[in-house]
Amino acid sequence: MRLEKPYIITEIKNHSREIRLEAELLKNKVLNWLNIDEAPKREYIEGITIDKESSKDLDDWIWAEKTKNWYSLFISIADISEIIKPWEKLDYEAYSRATSVYINNHAYHMFPSEISTDLASLNHDTKRLTLTTRVDLDNNYDVTYSEIFESVFHNKNRFNYEQFNKHFNNYWEDYHNDLNLFHKIAKNLYRKRLWYWWKNDFKEKVTLNLNEEQSLSNHSIPSFIIQEFAILSNIENAKINFKERINGIFRLHMPELKWKITSNKIIERAFYNFRNWYHYWLWENFYWHFTSPIRRYADLINHRQQKAWIRDKKDEIYNKNQIREIVLNINSSIEKTIELEKKHNKVILNKKIERFLKKIKEDDYNNLSSISVQKFSQLIVFFINNPEYLNNTKIKNEILYRINFNLLDEKSIARIVSWSNEILDLDEFKILIKTKNEINIY
User: Fold this and answer.
1) CA dihedral in degrees (415, 418, 424, 429; nearest 10)?
2) pTM for the full predicted model
3) CA 95 to chain centre
């Protein structure tokens, strides 16, 4: 199979009219030939999805059951690989984009909405083709068995966060016991992973808080549950992949390449690779992305490869050289998307700050002292890009006052140092910062 060269992403934008028409044609075509009720060799399962009210691309379903000696977890993922074939127009579009992007409450989907929010999405009271991972845990939450199989999923109830909290907090609701069981399992999976990480590295540098997840708000509990179940599914599928020597796309985090710790957080981003090493932050030797094929192209590739193995095909969809080429493009596209996203967010932030400054300007900048540290840090970035504001004495004096009384974060102070050295000859900034011994930024 010949790999087409992806187009270069130059801006984050919606799909073209041609691509949307292609998606509509595919949707009508699939609905005509796909009889889900008669899907061969697929196990029928029922359950629920949990997502934000605003979410439209529902690609995962979870369930868990308690037996006498273990827990059985089921994570079902939309099987978009059944309807999107390699190197058709829609696949090429997804390959070029590599991922969906969410900016300012707007979604720029990897696939057009006809696919991502309709044909492939696990919507309420619909049946969809899925790939299901089953994982059995013992009472110590260690994995005793895992498998992956093709399935047909019927979504009996689509929970948003408000509905989740209603059932989670009230014992008389139908799903109260189920959701609390999910939470119990998620907490223990998280604790186990955190304990391994703390025990093996940064024992003296990072404070261990095994009860951290208990401080989550009710709004965060459902996303926490989904996160832990998804991580477990990704780990177990990566193990199957490695054991069976299936070519796939692994997700690595190797901070020794370039890393540092700031505020107890590892900075360096994870990346994709055709070879497996390890994921440092999760403290796992095997990890790949599998749970979001509607939103991430790497997951779709892994679905195709693993499904070929499930069906006992001798030949995989992609060989190692093709996987290597796809990985290079995905990493490159994601880096480009991140740059464009930052640029886009910067424009939006500057507009918000300009509106904010216009309001305080009407009061002759007399309310600068009431601005929070976080918001003032955003103003610092704006001032760096728009140094003409420093002509205003009140703004300059407010910055000097905040430096003097430690009312700025270290990043803001570092920016001021760079700014005053390279853009403006503001000696009063440099002298004041250098005399404050407790700020070590040189």
Assistant:
1) 70
2) 0.76
3) 18
> Is residue 83 within 8 Å of 30, Cβ to Cβ?
yes
Residue 47: name the closest of 158, 177, 121 by CA: 158
The number of helix segments (H) and strand segments (E) in the chain equals 12, 11
Q: What is the DSSP string of 198-231?
A: HHHS-TTTS---TTGGGG--TTTHHHHHHHHHHH
**Which of 280, 93, 115, 112 is closest to 193 using CA atoms?**
280
Task: Look up residue 93 and give its two tokens.
Answer: 């579009």
d(CA 147, CA 149): 7
Q: What is the pLDDT of residue 314?
A: 63
Residue 99 gets which letter from DSSP? B
- The residue written with tokens 């892994």 in the block is 302
Calpha distance 170→176 (Å, rounded):
6
Q: How many CB atoms are located within 10 Å of the residue 204 CB?
A: 4
| CA 134/CA 72 separation, integer angstroms | 7
Q: Which amino acid is at 276?
A: N
Query: Is the CA virtual torsion 80, 83, 87, 91 positive or negative?
Result: negative
The whole-angstrom separation of Cα 90 and Cα 83 is: 10
At 7 the three-state DSSP class reads coil
Question: Is residue 228 predicted with pLDDT exceeding 80?
Answer: yes
* Residue with the two structure tokens 């070519």: 247
Instruction: Count Cβ neighbours within 10 Å for each residue of 146-169 and write b for 16 or more, e otherwise.
Output: bebebbbbbbeebbbbebbbbbbe
Residue 150: strand pairing partners: 131
Q: Checking DSSP bridges between strand 143-159 and strand 127-138, what pairing results, if any?
A: antiparallel
Q: What is the pLDDT of residues 308-362, one digit of tens each?
A: 888 876 667 888 899 999 999 898 888 888 888 777 777 777 777 777 777 766 6
Domain spans, the chain: 17-341, 363-434
3 state DSSP class of 296: strand
Angle, helices 320-362 vs 89-97, to 10°: value is 60
For residue 348, give the amino acid letter.
Answer: I
Tokens of 212: 């951290």
Q: Give the 3-state secondary structure of residue 83.
A: coil
Q: Alpha-carbon distance 92 to 5, whole Å? A: 9
